[in-house]
Design goal:
The chain is of the alpha/beta class. The chain folds into 2 domains: 6-74, Helicase, Ruva Protein, domain 3 (Orthogonal Bundle); 88-309, Rossmann fold, CATH 3.40.50.150. It is built from 11 helices and 12 strands. The strands form 3 sheets. It has an 8-stranded mixed sheet, sandwiched between helices. The chain has a two-stranded antiparallel ribbon with strand order 1-2. Helix 6 (106-119) packs parallel to helix 7. The longest helix has 15 residues, at 59-73. It starts with 5 loop residues before the first strand and ends with a strand.
Length: 311
Amino acid sequence: MISMDVIPCSIGSALIEGEQRLRYADVIRPRRHAELLLEKALGRDRTELYLSAGESISVQVYDKFIEFIQRREAGEPVQYIVGWAPFFGRKFTVGDGVFIPRFETETIIEQLLFDYNKNYPHEDTIEILDLCSGCGVIGLTVAAEIANANVTLVDSSKTAIQYIKLNAGNLNVEDRVKLIQADALTEFPASWNGLYHYVLGNPPYIPVNEIHTLPPDVRNGEPRQALTDEGDGMSFYARWIHTIPPVLKEGGKLYVECGDGKASSVANVFNNAFENLIVSKDLSGMERVVEGVVRKSIQGTNLKKVNKIII
């Protein structure tokens, strides 16, 4: 006699059903997304999922899984449904209203760590500024990787600031981070003048006339202000050549992410304020990160004091 608490369906069969439904809905990587959603419904990791593939699934778990599948079919990002996204070997909490981190952004971390290990391994304290922080993956990862780093994270979104605070606690780095809710296009506080060894940034760089080319779950699911500057995608870079040099120490470096095929344009903009420019490729071979050293001739300008420190 079959229990009323289970259905004649195994965990493995449910996974196949979910994959087929997502494939029919034109979801990219339907198998992986079905795995993530079933892991969430079961409360088990990927290994346990396959080890228990022949086990019967309860009605409650099956219904929850189908609910997740339906949300994904409707275009909700899988990361929002499961509540996290991977980045540099860690899990970051994400949800509706915050930008979802991508693997290509890890290139910034890799390049910065290489430079840090070369130039600052014995420095007492490293000061780092992370602009357009989103859920905090860049700045918080740096704080987790570099024990003597103090990181200031800036984002205009109150929701993003809340997720940064949550992720900082999860990574146990909250005592070395400062969060500021502010537009990264504004002037920086005078107290930052000559303070930072590194400035990092992943601004909204999708040109507004290319938004329609993004996958539906990106253009409709993620916050628009984290995707585009409502212009040509170059607004932040053009602004930062004026605001970032003063806050960097002598020899300080800037690292920014840029869109597909835009690295040369970004490097041309930065050439006005930075030297020794380097373009690095991500794992897919796309030119993704531009870095440069601040030019001494334009360093040290006094700045207006703005932006409210909230923690």
